[in-house]
Amino acid sequence: MERVNQILENELFRKCYKKIEKCEKKREFCRHNMVHFMDVARIAYIYNLEEQLDIKKDVVYATALLHDIGRFKQYEDKTPHEKASLKYAPTILEESGYSKEESEMILDAIAQHRNKEVAKEHSFRGIFYRADKASRACFSCKSESECNWKNEKKNLELIV
Fold first, then answer.
1. Which residues contact 77 (CB under 8 A, 6 or more apart)?
2. pLDDT at position 135
3. What is the rounded CA–CA span in Å between residue 132 and residue 107?
4. What is the rounded distance in angstroms from the CA atom of residue 85 to the CA atom of residue 50?
5. DSSP-derived secondary structure letter, 70
6. Residues ≥6 apart with Cβ < 8 Å to 142
7. What is the DSSP letter of 85?
8. What DSSP letter does each residue of 115-143 carry, written as one string?
9. What gap in Å lies between CA 33 and CA 68, rounded to an integer?
10. What pTM was estimated for this model as a whole?
């Protein structure tokens, strides 16, 4: 997990993360913070084990840390955050020692993490999409009734 720790210490990662925190300071709903990133990582890793995909743990965690890292751009200029995240993630991955092959897999999962079409795939991007969605505990959220997500999109019961 040395490379994951390098991501956490990366100057660009920290800069982007602080911008997200600032943009979401008053946000009542699902924040894009370290709790979300770690929840996605842990769920994705469980899916990885269950589906026997043999994706390295640090690749799963790197993807989780970087999948929403461009979120602040969506607040600033409405750039879809998966596209903005793809702007920052390659540099962070390279500086943290990820190979070209690993980076391509991570970037593909980031690019597809909002694409419902990949949900049923037996692939890294498929498990990552599902983990990102399963990470939201709408069933216990105090702001669920005010949330603008459609009920079909909300996790109103535990997903396993």
1. none
2. 79
3. 15
4. 28
5. T
6. none
7. H
8. -GGGTT-SSHHHHHHHHHHHT--GGG-TT
9. 9
10. 0.88
Q: How far apart are CA 120 and CA 114, in angstroms?
A: 13
CA atoms within 13 A on the CB side of 37: 20
Secondary structure tally for the chain: helices H, strands E: 8, 0
CA distance 42 to 77: 31
Cβ contacts of 91 within 8 Å, gap of 6 or more: 12
> Are the beta carbons of 112 and 129 closer than 8 angstroms?
yes
Helix axes 11-23, 2-9, angle to 10 degrees: 60
Residue 103's Cβ-side half-sphere holds a number of Cα atoms within 13 Å equal to: 16
CATH of domain 2-135: 1.10.3210.10
Task: Tell me which residue of 59, 56, 60 sits closest to 41, measured CA to CA.
Answer: 60
Q: What are the average pLDDT values for consecutive 10-residue runs of the chain, which has 160 residues?
A: 96 96 80 86 96 97 96 88 92 98 97 88 94 74 64 64
Q: Which two tokens stand for residue 95?
A: 């500086």
Q: How many CB atoms lie within 10 A of CB 44?
A: 29
Tokens of 137: 């505990």
